[in-house]
Amino acid sequence: MQPHDSDPLNDFIEYDSEQMQQRSQQFLQQMRRRHSIRSFSDRPVPRQVVEDCILTAGSAPSGANHQPWHFAAIHSDHLKSQIREQAEALERGFYQDKRAGEAWLEALKPLGTDAHKPYLQTAPWLIAVFSKKRGGLQDDGETTNYYVHESVGIATGFLIAALHQAGLATLTHTPKPMSFLSKVCGRGDNERPYMLIVAGYPGEDARIPVHARHKKSLAEIASFL
Ligand code: IYR
Q: Which segments constitute the Nitroreductase domain (predicted)?
């Protein structure tokens, strides 16, 4: 079955199998150099780079192509310090008041994370990703969106890969609960905060926890049937 209205696929690039193997390996090597870091420099990053990375995220596949996402790119020092303040208050509840529970805190120990989040203020860009349960392609606020979580997850993955490819370091951050982000970013209650992406140059003291270096082998994550 053909869609009612369609265009020929005219931008697909075919590579021979040798090129394909080389490209898949190069991309693997490149993505293996992406690390979540928790120290960012305040060096500025042009807004146009962030715009392009958001457009890359917006090119992700989504349920019925409804694109149920919004990206709030925060550069304002005032908003970043508000986010830092509120995220740190929540994280203090998570870590110090043990709202996380013992098992979760134990699982985080090898990462060395704590409630102190200076990078939320230092990094040049914070990108708050929001999901929309309703709205459709026209953003009418009513039409049901489908596979919202999956769609926004894919778009966020594209965003992280695009930022890395552009030469920026990233951190996924999910303060719990994240509802304060809606207010800070001025988003309506038809949107839910999904994730906060910190982006910028790494700080001079940026480190990679040994725990984070361990990636499962192919045998552990895949089966070929
Ligand atoms: N949001 C907290 C806790 C945290 C949770 C997980 I799961 C991580 O992989 C890392 C951190 C924080 O940012 O510290």
A: 32-201
198 CB less than 6 Å from ligand 1? no
- Answer positive or negative: Cα dihedral of 93, 97, 99, 103: positive
- Is residue 148 a contact partner of residue 69, using CB atoms and an 8 Å limit? no
The answer, yes or no, to whether any atom of ligand 1 lies below 6 A from the CB of 175, is yes
Cα–Cα distance, 214 to 198 (Å, whole number):
22
Chain centroid to Cα 153, Å, comes to: 8
Cα–Cα nearest to 132, from 76, 190, 74: 190
Output the pTM of the full model.
Answer: 0.97
Model confidence pLDDT, tens digit, residues 61-111: 999 999 999 999 999 999 999 999 999 999 999 999 989 999 999 999 999
pLDDT of 209 higher than 80:
yes
Give me the domains of the chain, ranges plus CATH numbers.
Answer: 68-203 (3.40.109.10)
Q: Ligand 1: which atom is nearest the Cα of residue 173? A: 13
Residue 133, both tokens: 């349960």
3-state secondary structure of 206: coil
Is 91 close to ligand 1, i.e. is its CB under 6 Å away? yes
pLDDT at 2 over 90: no
Placement of tokens 């134990």 in the chain: 106
Task: Give the residue whose CA is nearest to atom 9 of ligand 1.
Answer: 108
